[in-house]
Amino acid sequence: MDIIQSLSEIFEEIDVSWIDSSKHINKSDKYYDLLSLFPNLRKKFEEGRQKDEVEFHRTVKHIFRIFKIYFLMKAGEFNHNTLSSISSQTISRKVKNQFMQNELVLPLILMYHDIGRFIDKNDHPNQSVLFISNNNLLESFKLEDADKLLIKKVIQYHLLFAAIYTGESTYFGIYSLLNDKEFIKLFSNERYFRLFIDSLEIFTYIDILGYSYAKIYDHYIKYFNEINKKLKTILSFWPDKESALEKAIKFSNELLEWRIAGALRIFQFVDTKSYLTREFYFNKIKESVFNINNVITLNVDWNSIQTNYLKFSYQIQIKYGLGFLMLLSKKCEKMKFERSPMKRDQIISSNLILFWIILSKEIGIRSKGDMGCMWNVYFKGLPIWSKWDGKMKKLLNHKTLESIIKSAYQNFDQNKKEFNLYLDFKKVFT
After folding, report:
1. What is the mean pLDDT of each run of 10 residues along the chain (430 residues)?
2. CA-to-CA separations, 224 to 163, 207, 221, 318, 347, in angstroms, rounded
């Protein structure tokens, strides 16, 4: 019996509600059935459980859910309460097409993509790939070398597609791929670099749906198709790296308003109500600018702000900071972390645009005018979201944001040719 059939039999016997309600999946027969197919993961899973039991259960439940969603899509039986039947069928068709390319690729990506969380959850994509490579986890499967590389690279960059969509990253994030000597090997075959982008897109749908609270809507299809097309356009310039990055910068700058509005959940709720248009979200951002004129004497219009104050923002790749940006956009009296759309009369805090202006300016200073380098921005010392309140929010203002950003520690990764910037909030919240 092959592994795909075995996986199918495991997950056809359980339903999503069982996964969502189960508190101890790791004690179930299905858990042991799954690990029996991947015996080289048993030790690492047990180490993960002992290291952080909460993270372990979250990860195991996520793996079970994405496999169930995957096999429902593959069978044409997938539906989601916020998706039309046409959209559900469209996603399922993409999964089936990928399965026809190679039936092993996506299931192995699903199984291995999060094992790095048991090592370092804040760097789990890279840790997952290192663990796969160091332990030769793909050698027991009948795969071409190109397919093995494809699996590893999708896992390593599996957050890129979603991060562009939510605004955490920009198309300039492709910089990492263009400097990745292993990834460049995929360029020798156009089919594989296109398959890489398609696999990222398909994986992102499944990954989002791997969480019980997740909701995706019909508009995701349109925007994901656009990201897919633009990433392929950028990569099509290879080996002309300079032209590829120029195109990435152009696409990133075109996405600036959308990116900042990611903190308002534009990516999730745009067009789900008649008033929730792109312009509605963009205008909320622009309206917040009027509240900062007296703070930093910014008596200019929105176009000038984009050109003069945010021109380095495309270089910034936010790492695990979307929740912080969402809370930063809230007014002091509205600190609750919400998963609902904005109200028509809702006002956002000017702290959000202040953060982007100050950070972009600092990146420009530290880059010394070099607009061709990439900066990964990490957040340290933040309290968990459930503990945020109006008092804590008041601690974040123009002065504290500027102080944190200006005093941030940086380093340069010689292998990746990328800068890392660490914003430390401990001095504010302790």
Report:
1. 90 94 92 95 94 93 97 94 96 93 96 94 93 95 94 97 98 96 85 93 97 94 98 94 97 97 98 97 91 59 86 96 92 67 92 95 91 94 74 80 96 95 89
2. 12, 14, 5, 20, 29
Note if the bond before 239 is cis, omega within 30 degrees.
yes
Distance CA 12, CA 14 (A): 6
Please say whether the beta carbons of 128 and 115 come within 8 A. yes
Measured distance CA(406)–CA(409) in Å, rounded = 9
Q: Pairing mode, if any, of strands 409-413 and 418-424? A: antiparallel
Give pLDDT tens digits for 234-244.
Answer: 999 999 999 99
Count of other CB atoms within 10 angstroms of residue 149: 18
Beta strand pairing call for 375-380 and 409-413: unpaired
Cα–Cα distance for residue pair 281/85, rounded to 1 Å:
28
Nearby residues of 43 by Cβ (< 8 Å), 6 or more positions away? none
The Cβ-side half-sphere exposure at 143, using a 13 Å CA radius, reads 21
Q: Model's pTM, two decimal places?
A: 0.95
